[in-house]
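DM from R.C. (forwarded with permission)

"hey, sorry to bug you on a friday — could you get me a structure for this? deadline for the figure draft is monday and I only need the backbone to look sensible"
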Amino acid sequence: MTATRLLVANRGEIACRIFRACRDMGIETVAVFSDADRDAPHVAMADYAARIGPPPARESYLSVPAILEAARKTRATLVHPGYGFLAENAGFARACAGAGLVFVGPKPESIEAMGSKTGSRQLMEKAGVKLRWYKPLRIYSIYKIGKRTHRKILTVDGRIGFTGGFAIDDRWLGNARNPDEWRDTNVQVEGPVVTQLQAIFMEDWVHTTGEVLHGTEQFPPVAASGSVLAQAIASSRTDSSSKAKLLYYMAIQAARKTIWIENAYFVPDGQIRRGLVHAVERGVDVRVLVPGPHIDVPMVRMASRFHYGELLDGGVKIYEYRPTMMHNKVMVVDGIWTTIGSINFVNRSMKKNAEANVAIYDRGFAEQVEKSILADLEKSEIFTRAKWKKRGLLARISETVFWLFSENY
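My reply, with the result:
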């Protein structure tokens, strides 16, 4: 069989395993990376994912084996744009070199550090790896540093797709058992929605390289895979109105029974906050699960708490996940509509980043995700109005200060 390309991003032992397997299968590799933010989150492999189409015989976990199995079966195209690429060991570079990897994305300082300390960059270049960066940072364009892609997409042969909050990082190796293993939720899909994910990837690929991927090898005819309705939603800063915000806001406005949210960076604007409170007034059960003490960007947690009073007074239930960093971007409405992807409840996701989510309209799938959320709630602590009022002066000052900068989160 003729192998085409693997498009991947980010770092760690997981990436090594993926690239080694692809190297053994003769798969060429391509990747789109995003911005120069060296402090960007690096998340853990999801401990939960669901397959769109006929329900699987058992719960399907999106893990390295799931991705590798897809590659083994198809020997074709994989895509994973995202941001936050940090490679700290030569093993990763050797795997990239063996796979013929092509990187496309902004040039993070961490790549420079990696190359100078371990020779990994030189190793990849010597092996013929092409290094390209999405919107590379230049002195004359430094003001554009925040214009980046935050999308996380991986497609195989145009027939299988993955999306969610994931990157490829050592934190994926676990199952949220301790603070070194992050909690994340991703989704595996099949059918026409995969073509939609490919189209979203193409936006960044064409912008970066000028190359238009085409033909049945890249975009094979895809028949429906089951009866579940699914749609991929793309958003970017060039939208006349924020599709990312509309995705969430319209679902909130339409809710009649439940709104369950798991989101890693939850600093909603006034319109979203009012929408959640009005939903409670309609009798909707509104629950929001956010990270607890384990969070990679503590200032976002402080900014989030600044408006907790308004939400708590309005009847919104807020929970904090305790075991580790919770990086989910999940929302379930009325036990029938679910969205999973890269969009956070922050200004950057709503107005600045390029993002991608998948929305699924199916009660069976929503039930699976709700069970996952309930399991997370068992490991969480409810944040009460009394607790919010008892916070100290330093906490109040920190919340105010970091909220003032929330436009940049």
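R.C.: lifesaver. Residues 1-19, 27-65, 74-118 have pLDDT under 50 and may be disordered.
me: no worries. Residues 54 and 369 are 16 Å apart (CA to CA).
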